[in-house]
Amino acid sequence: MKKMNWIIIISVILIIATNGLFAQQKNVTVTYVGNAGFLINSDGTKILIDALFKGFQGGYNLSQNVVDKLTHAEAPFDDVI
Fold first, then answer.
1. Which domain holds residue 53?
2. 76, part of any domain
3. Strand pairing partners for 46?
4. C-beta atoms surrounding 36 within 10 Å
5. Which secondary structure element, helix H or strand E, spans residue 6, and what is its range?
6. Per residue, what are the HEC states of 9-54?
7. DSSP code, position 57
8. What domain count does the chain have?
9. Distance between CA atoms of 45 and 79, rounded to whole angstroms?
10. Residue 63: how many CB atoms within 10 A of its CB?
11. What's the chain's Rg over C-alpha atoms?
12. Beta-ladder partners of 55
């Protein structure tokens, strides 16, 4: 599948998940990081999904600013599990 299709599929899954019962009981935010990456924050617990993937050609990499924040665990990527 094309990379954009995967991003759309992952986005839909995350939107459905955060609108479910779990999201209604807790404060959940989903932030698009880049590539196919998302940062999920649920009451201070942060989960990072696929943000550092660089497997595709052509414009599918993260900005250097985001890479620096990820590698140095700077906000909003501090305390990611």
1. 3-71
2. no
3. 41, 80
4. 20
5. helix 3-18
6. HHHHHHHHHHCCHHHHHCCEEEEEEECCEEEEEECCEEEEECCCCC
7. S
8. 1
9. 8
10. 9
11. 13
12. none
Are the C-beta atoms of 40 and 47 separated by less than 8 Å?
yes
Report the C-alpha gap between 45 and 7 in whole angstroms: 23
Q: Exposed, middle or buried by CB within 10 Å (0-12, 13-18, 19+), for 68? A: exposed
What residues contact 54, with CB distance under 8 A and at least 6 apart?
35, 60, 61
Is residue 40 in some structural domain?
yes
Is residue 80 helix, strand or coil?
A: strand
Q: What is the pLDDT of residues 6-53, one digit of tens each?
A: 777 777 777 766 666 555 666 888 888 877 788 888 888 888 887 766
Look at the chain and count its residues: 81
> pTM of the entire structure?
0.60
